[in-house]
Amino acid sequence: MMSNTKQKILDVSLDLFSRKGFSAVSIRDICAQVMIKESSVYYHFKNKQAIFDELLYHFEQVATDMMVRLEQSLSVQSCSMEKPFYQTVCDTFFESYFMDDFCNKIMRLLLIEQFGNSEVQKIYDRWMVAEPLEFQSKVFGTLMEIGIIPKSDSGYLAVKYYAPIYFFAQRWLFSGELSEEQKNSFRNAAYQHIEKFFAEMEVA
Question: Any idea which residues the entry calls the DNA-binding region (predicted)?
Fold first, then answer.
C-alpha cells in the first residue's frame, strides 16, 4: 500500500508538471508544496525522473483499463446507434478519461513534453490518437456488419468522427485550468457533433 507521503509527492508533482512542464519543476519546488525535506523525497524516489516514470506507468494502466472497458461494452452490448451504447462510450471516454483529473493532467504533461522527448511523444500519440481511432474503427466496422450504417471505410469514418472531438478537447480541456465551464463547453460541442454525425449517416 502506498504511503500518504509518497502519494502526495506524486499528486503535487503531477500538478506542477502539468502546469509548468517537467524541466521547469525542481525537487525543491515539489518539497515546498508537499512541505517535506528533500531527503524525504529521495526515500521514496531515486530522482525527479523516477516520479515522472511512475506517473506515466500509472496513467498507462488507467488508459489500458479504459480501453478494455470500451472493448467489453462493444462486445457485450447489442451494437446500435441508440443512446445507451454511445452514452456508455462517451461517459467512459469523455468523463472518465479526458475530464478525469488525473488523466487530464497527465495528457497536459504529455502535450508539453512530447516536443522534447520522443518516447513521451509516442505515449501521447498512442493514447490521444492511435488507440481512440482504432477503437472507433472497430465500432463502425461492427455497425456496418449488423446493418446499422451503410458500408464504408471504417478507418475514414473513425477519423471523421474523432477529429472534431480531438479539436474540442484541445480547445477546452487541455488549455488553461480545467473548469466546469470548460467541461460543459466541451460536452455541448462534442455531443452536438456526434448527433449531427449520425444524423448524416442515416440520411446517407
Answer: 26-45
| Among candidate residues 8, 6, 49, the one with its CA nearest the CA of residue 27 | 49
pLDDT tens per residue, range 133-153: 999 999 888 888 888 788 999
Cβ proximity of 126 and 114 under 8 Å? no
Query: pLDDT for 63-94, tens place per residue?
Result: 999 988 888 877 765 555 555 567 778 888 99
Please name the CATH architecture into which domain 55-203 falls: Orthogonal Bundle (1.10)
- Inter-axis angle of helices 4-20 and 48-76, to 10 degrees? 90
Checking if the pLDDT of 2 tops 70, the result is no
- The set of cell numbers assigned to 5 is 507521503
All three cell numbers of 61, joined, read: 494502466
Instruction: Give residue 202's region: left, alpha or beta (phi > 0; psi -120 to 50).
Output: alpha
Instruction: Specify whether the backbone of 66 is left (phi greater than 0), alpha (psi in -120 to 50) or beta.
Output: alpha
CB contact set of 156 (below 8 Å; sequence gap of 6+): none
How is residue 26 written as a grid cell?
A: 525542481
Amino acid occupying residue 22: F
